[in-house]
């Protein structure tokens, strides 16, 4: 493994990868806290850091058909959630380009 560039978020409220504790997202970038992931509740963010994306996949979610990429922590490679690449339902378009982080896979720092 080479040297990894880890981006640090300026809090005060930050979500971190539960597994390796690098910063994942800022509370300022939360769009919604009322989402459901594979492991229960999940958060929708407009921006996350220190992640890598898996291949594009078409997936049928509770809110319809979407093209998504799984989101992995770039530091420890644990799956943290997914990114909405494309939504097919007009009412779901606002999610395109945004990120889901599973509540069960991140930890809150600062509150
Ligand atoms: Zn991690």
TrEMBL record:
The keyword Metal-binding is annotated on this UniProt entry: yes
Top-rank taxon, per record: Eukaryota
Keywords on record: Metal-binding, Zinc
PROSITE patterns xrefs: YIPPEE (PS51792)
Molecular function GO terms recorded: metal ion binding
InterPro entries in UniProt: Yippee (IPR034751), Yippee/Mis18/Cereblon (IPR004910), Yippee_fam (IPR039058)
A Pfam family: Yippee-Mis18
Residue span(s) of domain Yippee: 13-110
Entry-linked PANTHER family: PROTEIN YIPPEE-LIKE CG15309-RELATED (PTHR13848)
Similarity-based family: Belongs to the yippee family.
Protein name: Protein yippee-like
Lineage, highest ranks first: Eukaryota, Viridiplantae, Streptophyta, Embryophyta, Tracheophyta
């Amino acid at each position: 493994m080479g040297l990894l560039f880890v981006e640090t978020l300026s809090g005060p409220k930050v979500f971190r990868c539960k597994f390796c504790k690098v910063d994942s997202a800022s509370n300022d970038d939360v769009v919604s806290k009322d989402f459901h992931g594979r492991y229960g509740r999940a958060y929708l963010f407009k921006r996350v850091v220190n992640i890598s994306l898996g291949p594009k996949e078409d997936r049928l979610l509770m809110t319809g058909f979407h093209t998504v990429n799984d989101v992995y922590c770039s530091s420890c490679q644990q799956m943290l959630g997914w990114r909405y690449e494309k939504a097919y339902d007009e009412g779901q378009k606002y999610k395109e380009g945004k990120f889901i982080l599973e509540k069960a896979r991140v930890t809150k720092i600062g509150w």
